[in-house]
Amino acid sequence: MKTHAIIVAAGTGSRTGLAQPKQFEKLAGKPLFQWSIDAFLASANIESIVVVMPQAVLSEPELVETAPSRVKRVEGGATRSKSVRNGLRAIDAGEDDIVLIHDAARPGLDGATIETLVEALKKADAAAPALPVSDALKRSRGDTLETVSRDNLYRIQTPQAFRYGLISKAHEQQGESLVDDLAAVETLGIRVELVPGSQRLDKITFKEDFARMEAILKPVAAPPVRIGSGYDVHAFEEGDGITLCGIRIPFHQGLAGHSDADVGWHALTDAIFGALALGDLGDHFPPSDPKWKDADSAVFLKHALSLASEAGWQLGNCDITVICEAPKIKPHREAMRQATADLAGLPLDCVSLKATTTEGLGFTGRREGIAAQATALLVPAAHSHGA
């Protein structure tokens, strides 16, 4: 059993008021009818595609792009029903094969809808996407209105799915005024399954519908991100080593600070607070509080990461620059990167650490202390590394 598709693109589309049939107007950069071709081509279910077009267009190569071998273009008829019949006759299909008949004016077709319709035909004779009528319905009777019950009323969309033999025979026996393809089989007492429709499958009828549909079909925006920067400075004092990004580095001096004076992790912590718009390190860990005397800066960084997590964010990557004349940072750089990656739960390639000097200028150039700056990128927590 195979599945085939017919795209009906032979109408005049006169209600749009455009100079050419609407199906050949551009929607987000490509002809309206091409959206449906691309959707069917992307589906592994579809064996062949027939596009029914006006005869005049078939001879205009600028409107008809080169098509893959699965796509055949045939001439349409004076009515939609004739166009569908032409499309059905062009398919090399068996009686039990599935055919999906779709209006080119509905560009929002997707693979999930195609799969749902094909699945529905395992237990039904026909299937179509549908939306329950939600607005109040009124019938006008002269100067008065009469309320119409919305119970069991639906807006039927396309594609509509059928067994090839059934819909071919039904179309050959029906007249020319069918509003859709279900109308050809409704009197046969067959089982029709309605599957969930969507706004994406709405039809473009008027000129203003192009802008509305383009807004609906816009690709989903990339996940939002937040960026923060941090900067920290600590002066040298007497000592026998310093701590940078969690790594103890032997040195003939230490760094003055209320905590362990880890200037690298302080800058990164401030960058995370900045991305969260939650102030700075001093707001969360006041140097006047004896509780933080000689505290391990890992506590500060973990707290910032925890606040990010509570707000729905996580650290995506970070970049730390240490600014000093001494000690030499390069021999310890990889250990500092790894310690930061381990604490933050990041892959190593998401942690950048650089060192530079100020060429003898300023307080770092005079070897009075060390500065560090950091940039942190926060991403939505759902977008975890390795997911």
Helix residue percentage? 25-40%
Helix and strand run: EEEHEHEHEHEEEEEHEHEEEEHHHEHEHE
Mean pLDDT: 90
Number of domains: 2
Return residue spans where pLDDT drops below 50 for at least 5 consecutive residues.
Answer: none
Query: Roughly how many Å apart are the termini?
Result: 37 Å
Q: What is the count of helical runs?
A: 11
Known CATH architecture of the largest domain = Alpha-Beta Complex
In CATH, the topology of the largest domain is named Spore Coat Polysaccharide Biosynthesis Protein SpsA, Chain A
Percent strand = 25-35%
Overall structural class, as computed from helix and strand content, comes to: alpha/beta
The shape, in one word, is elongated
Query: So, the CATH homologous superfamily of the largest domain?
Result: Spore Coat Polysaccharide Biosynthesis Protein SpsA, Chain A
Radius of gyration, in angstroms, nearest whole number? 33 Å
Q: How many beta-strand segments? A: 19
The major β-sheet equals: 8 strands, mixed
Keywords:
5-stranded mixed sheet, 60s Ribosomal Protein L30, Chain: A, elongated, 387 residues, 26% helix, alpha/beta, 2 domains, 19 strands
Quick overview:
The protein is an alpha/beta fold and 387 residues long. The protein has helices spanning 32-41, 55-58, 80-89, 111-120, 164-173, 209-217, 263-276, 281-284, 297-310, 333-344, 362-365, and strands at 3-8, 26-27, 30-31, 46-53, 71-75, 98-103, 126-132, 137-141, 144-148, 154-156, 160-163, 192-196, 226-238, 241-244, 247-250, 253-255, 313-323, 351-356, 369-380. It has two domains: 3-217, Spore Coat Polysaccharide Biosynthesis Protein SpsA, Chain A, CATH 3.90.550.10; 226-380, 2-Layer Sandwich (60s Ribosomal Protein L30, Chain: A), CATH 3.30.1330.50.
